[in-house]
Amino acid sequence: MAFMKEKPLHFVTVTFNPAWDIWWQTEAPLRRGCVHTIRKTARVAGGKGVNVAKLLAANGRRVTAGGWVGEEDAETFLAEVRARGIAAAFHRAPGRTRENLMVRGANGEMKFNHPGFPSVRCDFASVLRYMRALTEKADVVALCGSLPAGFPPDTYARLIRDLHRRGVATALDTSGEALIRGIAAGPTLIKPNRAELEEIAGRPLRSETAVRREIERLRERVEAVVVTDGAAGAWFAVGEVRLWGRPPPVRAADSTGAGDAFLGQLIGEYFPARRLTEEIAARALAAGAAAAERPGSTPVSPERVTALASRVKIAAYTPRGV
């Protein structure tokens, strides 16, 4: 008897606040009151959901990127997105797409982010119509990044509820009130970092035990909870599976997009079977490390992810007694 081949999932990423990611590397350490000579530069079409889509496309996943884009530079921005093998279906908003600057010196980095679309006001009925058209054939929707100032903080929560009513799985990666309200809607997967987890908890989490307790509290409403903590590692909680891992050490060029690469790698391998393995966790951590090696949220290669994954340490832990 012949078996039908499983249909590949269609991923959609949504970025209401995309950006041109600009990266400068200086010749000397960053110092206040000094003139710095720029040695290397990069300028890349980015934003959290766009960066997630880059990883999905690099791994051969079917992915469409959507959200808002400035009408004045839309053609240039979308051409770069499509050049990565990503279908692009953005709504064109008045003005230009914002620019975010990351400056790296020998002693660390500094980031400067513009607000996005400050004059745009959210007509939720129009947003919902756009989203339903964008996600009509989607299996998984990743809602990523900050919201423009004119969007209410419950925007993601309302969209998550609508997507779930239509049988679409969701991943949420944002911060602040948008994250807190989004979690109340019960997304399928969330990926806060440790600082964002403290925002959710409403208090500092000064120990690993405190982090794990907050993860267990969130697991009551969310299928998959993943918390990243930069070079210190990440916690994964799905069903009865509890894993912790530390990324391999790499020579960091730019932390911009590292968490997005982590998420793109993770959801591309988690959602087909809705299960977490040590291999999937290791590859997500490897993707984040690989992204940190590259300037300006430029895409990473699957070969580099595979090479780094072999150096990731994964350990199981138990939620009992936390």
Query: Number of folding domains?
Result: 1
Question: Sheet with the most strands?
Answer: 10 strands, mixed
Specify the CATH homologous superfamily: Ribokinase
What would you report as the Rg, rounded to the nearest angstrom? 19 Å
Give the spatial strand order of the biggest sheet.
Answer: 5-4-1-8-9-10-11-12-13-14
What is the level 1 CATH name? Alpha Beta
pLDDT averaged over residues: 93
Total strands: the figure is 14
CATH architecture: 3-Layer(aba) Sandwich
Shape estimate: globular
Q: What fraction of residues sit in β-strands?
A: 25-35%
Distance between the termini: 49 Å
Q: What's the SSE pattern?
A: EEEHEHEEEHEHEHEHHEEEHHHE
Task: Give the count of helical stretches.
Answer: 10
User: If you consult CATH, what is the topology?
Assistant: UDP-N-acetylmuramoyl-L-alanine:D-glutamate ligase
In terms of structural class, how would the helical and strand content be classed? alpha/beta
Q: Low-confidence spans: pLDDT under 50, at least 5 residues?
A: 1-5
Q: What share of the residues lie within helices?
A: 25-40%
